[in-house]
Amino acid sequence: MAFEGLADRLQGSIQKIRGKGKVNESDVKEMMREVRLALLEADVNFKVVKNFVKRVSERAVGQEVMKSLTPGQQIIKVVKEELTELMGGEQSQIAVSKRPPTVIMMVGLQGAGKTTTTGKLANLLRKKHNRKPLLVAADIYRPAAIKQLETLGNQLDLPVFSMGDQVSPIDIARQGIEKAKEDHLDYVLIDTAGRLHVDETLMDELKQIKELSSPDEIFLVVDAMTGQDAVNVAQNFDEALGVTGVVLTKLDGDTRGGAALSIRAVTEKPIKFVGMGEKMDALEAFHPERMASRILGMGDMLSLIEKAQTNIDEEKAKEMEKKLRTATFTLDDFLEQLGQVKQMGPLDELIKMIPGANKMKGLDNLQVDGKQLGHVEAIIQSMTNAEKEQPEIINASRRKRIARGSGRTIQEVNRLLKQFEEMKKMMKQMTNMQQKGKKRGGFNFPFMK
Amino acid sequence: MSFFKKLKEKFTHSQDTMTEKFRDGLTKTRDSFTSKMNDLVARYRTVDEEFFEELEELLIQADVGVDTVMELVDELKMEVKRQNIKDTKDIRGVISEKLVDIYQGEHEVDPSLAIQQEGLTVILFVGVNGVGKTTTIGKLAHQLKNDGKKVLLAAGDTFRAGAIEQLEVWGSRAGVDVIKQGEGSDPAAVMFDAVQAAKARQVDVLICDTAGRLQNKVNLMKELEKVKRVIEREVPGAPHEVLLALDATTGQNALTQARMFKEVTNVSGIVLTKLDGTAKGGIVLAIKRELDIPVKFVGLGEKMDDLQPFDAEKYVYGLFADLVDEEPVDMREE
């Protein structure tokens, strides 16, 4: 990560006040300066930052922080609470029109990810809400934008309505809605062309589309990496069209995403979804608390836990735990665990969600290659059942065979066996520790609930 | 204030269409920026702490970034002391001078492309999703062709739906051929084909498109590394330019983008796109200063000829035109 999170930033000020009996106003002021810088580095608009810092200062100078024994932590807590509140509640529902079809208009700047998001949203409507959406290709300006939507429709096996790029987007929208009515489809998603919020002609075009299609939702699609200008963009689109919700895209990058806060603060419109990848199912509900953590550079433990919960089979986890405790954990089990971890997504993404991971030695620059997991899999799969059960029997010639079978080097085979041995040892120690501590509730490692 | 005069002379009397383009494209940027700047100067008669605080915010709003702004303001404070500037009117020139300084550092930066005198020149485009790589390639192809070069395009974005078709449309607009394979094919293989075709057809410039990728996707960055390696292997000394397309609306993450893409592909220059909006793209100052990657072009619109070579002085001038010239109205009528 390029920038320090709030917690890191506050370290200095906290050190200074440590040992002091009482925190005074100037200490708080200094900490507030760090809060301000952290938010600015996260791309929160400076005006939004100003108001925000003022609010937090009031709370901080009041009772809460100054009387606290751990003022640093208290400040972080107050900042996070205020931030979460400002971000609003979780609101990922989509309007349903009483008279179908429900019309959704997608708007935004060029390159924000409207077309991709349109595809994802249609996919979500079908998969999660069991709806029948129609995609309408109204971006006649960008070369091959229509083709892009058609290809996405093809991939998703969803109908796409298009009239080429010689017909006005207004007509395309009108006829698209007609088509949805004819075919008894219940959602119409209009993909409009990207445009500058200061381009009056093109903004007028959007107003016209809105007028004739009376959309139930107008989603503003915004790139999560947007800087200070996010407020201008959001404000202009909202004033012109009255957006009903925001979709934040490219949040799978490493941006802090302060734009989320800026947009929310100026429009007061809910952020409904976030784009988390290039795949068509990578559209998730927006979680204000997680976003607050992210903006503050505090990691995203909640997402990690959720990922683990949805991807790891509870029963299997229990069984595995028993095996670990009784030290009958084999390479086969190891393989199974790897598979479950893999399902959770790219490892480096997972690691990034751990708070403080960017500060941990060795983890800060860790780049985990998904392929390496594949290599480990290949090596284990090249073993016989007996070898998997009792890795002790693997001698030099067996190693050679395994290496050849998996297409890896003998060194890699050796490394894996050694790691597995060490892991087993560690498990044993942990089991002992846990039994001594009489703490029931099982393991927290590796990647278990 | 010789700098101030120099700039004024350089631009007010020039009929240079490029300067005008810059001016037009930056009008919105400039209007909001300079009117605030003028407000600021008008509001504060004297240069004091409060003035600097406002200036700080003004620059942060341009996405210049906290660190760079702090440094700039510190330097300005020193300069103000040194020259004994008291009136805010006198500080305008110093601000623009310092901004150009921050960008240029020790020596002036040459924004021209490393087009080879003889043989094939390969230009590789990289960047995150949606910054305008394909559009910029279309514009650049058009420009190079107008300069009398024989240009070929390589459709290396085999991932995004419709990307190949998009490049083909730009190719036909510019009147240059496109080498492509199917969607989902190996981009490195496309590059190999394209290089061979460029050699066989005795092309002057081969421009390679790649799929947009977020800089933290390890596998995709490795794929890009491979694409570059193939080009390197097939044409000694290539790619002669690796251009990172950067969206002017991007905030501080642009610095991370530049750092990561430089690590993998040794980026030689930046194309700052979408500068015709209200965003200022101030982060390029930090990128130049920290990573020494210069801006080579700016994208000022969606038309074929809306790609302009970057000139630091003009860029700053675009932001400060009203400040540098005493009769701002004349500037636009020129």
TrEMBL record, chain A:
GO cellular component, one term: signal recognition particle
Subcellular localization, as worded in the UniProt entry: Cytoplasm
SMART domains in alphabetical order: AAA, SRP54, SRP54_N
EC number assigned by the record: 3.6.5.4
Domain SRP54-type proteins GTP-binding span(s) in chain numbering: 270-283
KW Hydrolase (keyword) present: yes
One Pfam family from the record: SRP54
Top-level division of the source organism's lineage: Bacteria
Chief subcellular location: cytoplasm
Residues involved in GTP binding: 108-115, 191-195, 249-252
Stored InterPro entries: AAA+_ATPase (IPR003593), P-loop_NTPase (IPR027417), Signal_recog_part_SRP54_M_sf (IPR036891), Signal_recog_particl_SRP54_hlx (IPR013822), Signal_recog_particle_SRP54_M (IPR004125), SRP (IPR004780), SRP54 (IPR022941), SRP54_GTPase_dom (IPR000897)
Biological-process GO terms, alphabetical: SRP-dependent cotranslational protein targeting to membrane
Keyword tags: Cytoplasm, GTP-binding, Hydrolase, Nucleotide-binding, Ribonucleoprotein, RNA-binding, Signal recognition particle
UniProt domain comment: Composed of three domains: the N-terminal N domain, which is responsible for interactions with the ribosome, the central G domain, which binds GTP, and the C-terminal M domain, which binds the RNA and the signal sequence of the RNC.
Recorded family membership: Belongs to the GTP-binding SRP family. SRP54 subfamily.
Record's function text: Involved in targeting and insertion of nascent membrane proteins into the cytoplasmic membrane. Binds to the hydrophobic signal sequence of the ribosome-nascent chain (RNC) as it emerges from the ribosomes. The SRP-RNC complex is then targeted to the cytoplasmic membrane where it interacts with the SRP receptor FtsY. Interaction with FtsY leads to the transfer of the RNC complex to the Sec translocase for insertion into the membrane, the hydrolysis of GTP by both Ffh and FtsY, and the dissociation of the SRP-FtsY complex into the individual components.
Subunit structure: Part of the signal recognition particle protein translocation system, which is composed of SRP and FtsY.
Protein name: Signal recognition particle protein
Automatic annotation (TrEMBL), chain B:
Residue stretches making up the SRP54-type proteins GTP-binding domain: 294-307
Keywords: Cell cycle, Cell division, Cell membrane, Cytoplasm, GTP-binding, Hydrolase, Membrane, Nucleotide-binding, Receptor
Record membrane topology: Peripheral membrane protein
Enzyme Commission numbers on file: 3.6.5.4
GO molecular function annotation: GTP binding; GTPase activity; signal recognition particle binding
Residue numbers binding GTP: 127-134, 209-213, 273-276
Enzyme class: hydrolase
Subunit structure: Part of the signal recognition particle protein translocation system, which is composed of SRP and FtsY.
Chain's role: Involved in targeting and insertion of nascent membrane proteins into the cytoplasmic membrane. Acts as a receptor for the complex formed by the signal recognition particle (SRP) and the ribosome-nascent chain (RNC).
Family in the record: Belongs to the GTP-binding SRP family. FtsY subfamily.
Protein known as: Signal recognition particle receptor FtsY
Gene behind the chain: ftsY
